[in-house]
Amino acid sequence: MTSIDVLDSTLRDGSQGEGISYSVQDKIHIVQALDELGVKYIEAGNPGSNPKDMEFFQRARALKLENSRLVAFGSTRRKDSSCAEDANLQSLLSAETEDTVIFGKSWDFQVTEILHASLDENLEMIRDTCEYLTKRGRNVMYDAEHFFTGYQKNPEYALKSLEAAVNGGATVLCLCETKGGCMMGDLRDAVSAVVEKFSKAVKIGIHTHNDSGLAVANSLIAVESGATHVQGVLLGFGERTGNANLSTIIANLQLKMGYKCIPEENIKKLTPICRRVAEITNIKLGAGLPYVGQSAFAHKAGMHIDAVLKNPSAYEHISPDLVGNERTFLMSEVAGRSMIIEKINKFDASIKKSDPVVAEIIKEVKEKEHQGYQFEGADGSFELLVRKAIGKYQPFFKLHYYKTSGEIPLIEEGLYAFAQVKIAVEDHIQVAAGEGNGPVNALDNALRSALKTFYPAVEQIHLTDYKVRVLDSKSATASRVRVLIESSDGSDSWTTMGVSCDVVEASWMALVDSFEYKLIKDIEKKYQKYI
């Protein structure tokens, strides 16, 4: 089985998509998700372009990745400076990644009209940059920007640009279909020519955009033509109409075309990890996405359901569990038991699929998902739901009331809101107040203050992320919202959520789940210590 090196550019090319913005912590979580999936390379950003990417690479040095290698991205040196004087190249070196992607011009028009350089100058820039980084211990992958347009206009020069990268020590020549307009036959011819000329010396790669709706198809054609390195974005978003969708490419190559892209056992993680990345990105995973979308294996009432119940292969091109997805029947709502029982067994292996409590849990999950809950991205809240159903839950306090208020203009710099809570812990009543830069922050501080007398461990909890998603934009300010809160105690992390038409109430629900999840886990750890 031929192996394909997959490079995911969610954090670099994907982040250029409209409405996409990652914090450093978001980037770290996505790296961990992609590492769990098993992609070989993660192109994590351009350290010379902004302070956020540089901070990421500094923090990423502490990450222990099992499958993936981080890659820093940058351009060839400027035409009027040496490599040693080029600030972007120095930033690439300071990122301290073993692997580096360098992009340069392969289309003569781009060289003369955009760079305002001579054709020979451009070749020197490519060769010098690759050689400079190679001599400093970096594995250089060369992205030939606008290669296919350049090959159509001036094939001789496009190939010379690749030769310059090879002469500089590049180990991969990645052919970039930058404008997204190349037709399949033209792409096949160009890739075949490059494979014939260079594949004995280096690996040939493909990087496509989706402006003509052909990014996935062209990537697969490139592999059939001899490419063994594929770049893209896990969920396909990116500038303009997006990048090649790696979730589709990986599934097609590995399940249908006989190539190995990720460890075989990891292909079942494809859907859950795509959902996780969508949640971190704060976007809705497209229901119609091949393989991983919610509708990828959905069947409506009538002939299709009747046929699928008799034999799923009647209307399904693969079994959904191969990619960690599930079959759904839209009218009968018969779905999810296997996925639910698998999650339940992670913390209570004694429960069987036939136990009545499983049906009760599935019913409640479906009801809550109808309300707007999304348990795929909230492991903590899902575990609490199950614990309540199976009798492994205890409430740690009872709420009497909470209230929040705001002040404009500010009384004090940074304080926009105030909160008060009254709770009961057994027979004890506690009233506490909190200030913050918003009502949720103030409420968090007030609840923490009220609980710490009884449960000192809440002081260890830190909110590492907070996301709000409007579930029904047609209702404007009366819309139902879903709030996701990610928390950590320094060693473990968990996500909880709440859904309401009131963003403060939804936040309160997520906060309570977060605190109770931590306290339950602490009790179980203490119990395990003494058995």
The outline comes out as: globular
Number of helices: 17
Helix fraction, binned, reads 25-40%
Main β-sheet, spatial strand arrangement:
2-3-4-5-6-7-8-9
Strand content: 15-25%
Largest sheet: 8 strands, parallel, barrel
| N-to-C CA distance | 48 Å
- Provide mean pLDDT, rounded: 89
Q: Which structural category fits the helices and strands?
A: alpha/beta
Uncertain stretches of 5 or more adjacent residues: 331-336
Radius of gyration: 26 Å
Provide a descriptive summary of the structure in words.
This protein has 531 residues and is an alpha/beta fold. Helices cover 40% and strands 20% of the residues. The chain contains 17 helices and 18 strands. An eight-stranded parallel barrel has the order 2-3-4-5-6-7-8-9, surrounded by nine helices. Strands 13-14-15 form a three-stranded antiparallel β-sheet. A hairpin with a 4-residue loop joins β17 and β18. α1 (24-37) packs across α2 (51-60) and α8 (184-198) packs parallel to α9 (215-224). The longest helix has 27 residues, at 503-529. The radius of gyration is 26 Å and the shape is globular.
